[in-house]
Design brief:
Blueprint: H1 12-15, E1 34-41, E2 49-57, E3 62-66, E4 72-74, E5 83-84, E6 90-91, E7 98-104, E8 107-115, E9 122-124, E10 127-129, E11 144-153, E12 156-160, E13 166-167, E14 171-177, E15 182-185, H2 192-201, E16 210-212, E17 218-222, H3 224-229, H4 239-247, E18 254-256, E19 267-272, E20 275-279, E21 285-290, H5 294-299, H6 312-325, E22 333-334, H7 350-357, E23 378-381, E24 384-391, E25 408-410, E26 415-418, E27 428-429, E28 431-434, E29 444-446, E30 449-451, E31 456-460, E32 471-475, E33 484-486, E34 492-494, E35 499-503, E36 514-517, E37 527-529
Parallel strand pairs: 1-24, 18-22
Antiparallel strand pairs: 1-7, 2-3, 2-6, 2-8, 3-4, 5-9, 8-11, 9-10, 11-12, 12-23, 13-17, 14-15, 14-24, 16-17, 18-19, 19-20, 20-21, 25-37, 26-28, 27-32, 29-30, 31-32, 33-34, 34-35, 35-36
Length: 530
């Protein structure tokens, strides 16, 4: 598991807003001294765009900003009360346009983008006061803006489209390595921004977390921790679920296996009163946690402290992710990595649920440790050559640049992979059917995902790797259950199972269901793009 920590541990003035940035330990210098980052505007809005690159120079620990050409400039001055910072905005692209800026190697921080108005920053003797629009008196509260967080150092680039504090301007992030391969994440589905906003408004008790400007522009949805702190969401919203999940381990054991690459490392938790105590395999007590408040779960802090060690921090991060996703108490080995099990508790983190549901690949940074299990909207390359920020359409359109949907046709009987009755619901079992050019038979190859026309994905039920596992449709979540490739031999292979999509019972008729099976090279396992 990647260890995530707040940026600038020594700079409390900047700490408050940088929960999502990933900081890595440098290895050897790779990548250019100045990394070109292209900002592309596809919002559909005519507002002028202003860009800012704000953060810390890693070699010196100095706070500052970066010019369009990539020069680092430290902040100077500042007073109490905070004084206005100089205008360090970079002119950004108009709708349909692009602007290239530079990230200097050895820098970590945020890339802000504001539409319509420039942001207002302030300086203290200790550092920078950044925008905090969840506070009623914040100078930037009525400005439409957002940010991505990044670290670029000798170990490469980490860039994520954070929604830890708010969801405002959906945007994708990309990185292209020296090998020419581009990684991309953070795209919303068609009308995804509206779907998140409308979905939040529809949840009892959540409507006030949506902030609308006097001209009718919806500026943002606040993350639940920020909303509760501002009095816009019940401060005890999640308490009943937390109590139920916590108390479940008075009579059974919670197993935490926090390192995917070290499955033998396990810790065992039991609850007594309000305290959950963890032991290692030798029975030695290694950590204990008080039952957390809703605020501690929203923020992954307080009662769930996560130091950058190898025991307490990993357990705490796992607990926080499980409580946000609603799997603690019902799934007793954590972290759970089957997204189909997430957000089923009542109450649950509706903010995270809706954001993930409206991402084309299911990935987002909707809370501080959303990277547990690998569900974060982050791109990384150890030897980058360029990167990108793509501001997504506010209405219509849709994220990404997938190719037009095409049929996937059996070489055996020339029938197509089909969604039964065009019923695009989770767990719809996929079948073979006479090719008819309907949307039920159109698939988009997007990386290693096969997406239907409503941006759901070909999926293996419950992530099974067994022969006979059902091949179905499910909300895209980026798990191994949804990683497929159509190779040059015509095999449609699930990469996690290393097995082929196959006609169940060798049935060649309309309605024949699909399954995973050992790749045998038979005609019933051969496919092509139509």
């Amino acid at each position: 598991m990647r260890l995530r920590r707040k940026l600038l541990a020594a700079a409390s003035a900047l700490l408050a807003g940088l929960a999502g940035t990933v900081v890595a330990t440098p290895a050897h210098a790779v990548g250019p001294a100045l990394l070109p980052v292209t900002v592309t505007n596809t919002t559909g809005r005519t507002d002028p765009v202003y860009l800012y690159v704000i953060g810390v120079q890693l070699s010196s620990g100095r706070l500052g900003y970066v010019t369009a050409g990539g020069a680092f400039v430290p902040w100077s001055g500042g007073q109490i009360p905070p004084s206005p910072a100089p205008d360090v905005s970079i002119p950004g692209p108009g709708n349909g346009g692009s602007t290239t800026i530079q990230f200097p190697r050895g820098f970590s921080g945020r890339a802000y983008f504001a539409l319509g108005q420039k942001l207002k920053f302030f300086l203290t003797p200790d550092g920078l006061v950044q925008p905090a629009p969840w506070a009623a008196g914040d100078a930037n509260r009525d400005i439409l803006f957002d940010w991505s967080e990044f670290t670029y150092n000798d170990s490469g680039l980490w860039l994520n489209s954070s929604q830890v504090d708010m969801f405002a301007i959906p945007h994708a992030v990309t990185v292209t390595g020296a090998n020419g391969v581009t990684k991309r994440t953070g795209d919303v589905v068609a009308n995804g921004r509206n779907a998140v906003i409308d979905g939040i408004r529809a949840q009892p008790g959540w409507a006030n977390t949506v902030h609308t400007r006097s001209d009718g522009t919806v500026l943002r949805v606040l993350a639940p921790g920020k909303a509760a702190g501002a009095g816009l969401l019940s401060t005890t919203y999640l308490d009943s679920y937390i109590a139920s999940a916590w108390n479940a381990y008075t009579t059974k054991t919670l197993t935490v296996a926090p390192f995917a690459d070290q499955p033998a490392i396990r810790y065992y938790g039991r609850t007594s009163g309000n305290t959950m105590t963890f032991t290692n395999g030798s029975g030695q007590v290694v950590a204990s946690f008080n039952r957390p408040s809703s605020a501690s779960v929203w923020g992954c802090d307080g009662d769930l402290p996560a130091p950058n060690d190898q025991v307490v921090g990993p357990i705490s991060r796992t607990l926080c992710a499980a409580l946000n996703r609603g799997t603690l108490g019902t799934i007793d080995t954590q972290p759970s990595t089957n997204a189909a099990d997430f957000y089923r508790s009542n109450p649950t983190n509706q903010y995270a649920r809706l954001i993930h549901a409206n991402m084309t690949d299911g990935r987002a940074y909707a809370f501080a440790f959303d990277d547990v299990g690998g569900f974060e909207s982050l791109v990384h390359d150890g030897d980058p050559r360029s990167a990108g920020l793509i501001l997504s359409p506010f209405t219509g359109g849709g994220g990404g640049n997938p190719t037009t949907g095409v049929p996937v046709v059996s070489n055996w009987n020339n029938k197509c992979i089909d969604v039964p009755s065009s019923n695009f619901v989770d767990r719809a079992p996929l079948q073979m059917w006479n090719c008819n050019n309907t949307n039920a038979q159109k698939w988009t190859f997007s990386g290693t995902a096969l997406k239907s026309q409503n941006n759901k994905c070909m999926d293996v039920d419950a992530g099974s790797t067994a022969n006979g596992a059902v091949v179905q449709l499910y909300t895209c979540n980026g798990t191994g259950a949804q990683q497929f490739t159509l190779n040059s031999a015509g095999d449609l292979v699930n990469l996690q199972a290393d097995k082929c999509v196959d006609s169940k019972d060798r049935n060649g008729s309309d309605g024949a269901r699909l399954q995973l099976w050992d790749c045998t090279g038979t005609a019933g396992q051969k496919w092509r793009k139509g």
